[in-house]
Amino acid sequence: MRGLILLGIPGLVIGMGSAAAQTVTRDDAMRAAIHPVGDAKTLQAWLSRVPTTRDFPDDFNATLRGHGAAFVIEMTTAPGCIPCGDLWTKLTALGTRYGWQVRTISGQEAMIRSGRLGLPWVGHPVAWVRPIADDTRVVPVAIGTDHSPNLARNLYLAAKMLTGVRPAVGVRAMSKFTGIVGLPATRAGRR
Description:
Elements: H1 2-7, E1 12-14, E2 22-24, H2 26-33, E3 35-37, H3 40-47, H4 60-67, E4 71-75, H5 82-98, E5 101-104, H6 107-117, E6 126-131, E7 139-143, H7 148-162, H8 167-173, E8 180-182
Parallel strand pairs: 3-8, 4-5
Antiparallel strand pairs: 1-2, 4-6, 6-7
Helix pairs in contact: 4-7, 7-8
């Protein structure tokens, strides 16, 4: 999400003082935040740069198991999307472990959701958690694929936010989306 925040602020100036100031364009921020991959080797190279969550709260397992029946994980996917398959595998394993449903949603629904939350559409995969009985309250838990412990942490934080923990607390803790997404499909056509 750190990169997504930059995307929403065109012309953001970063640095320590005017001598080190640098203007970051929307395109620069997009390149820094989104990492399209088309093969497993490139996916693993990007994932190797992502830190893995190591510390979890005492109520971590109880929260995830206790909320499994109340929430659903929904994600987008696209044909031939390597990160989509990676995220699906990890989320279904976590879903099985903690009793959460995992299902796909259409790209159209994902774009509408992203728009409602003020997030730019970055491609597939994107995953959200929502209460089973309420399709309007959603929390993004992955933009691109990630390590399983990081995904589990984000599921935990989403459950907490959707059950009353102050959102800013959860958003700060969850603000490390990888942006490792699939390459856009190319169309064969006339040249």
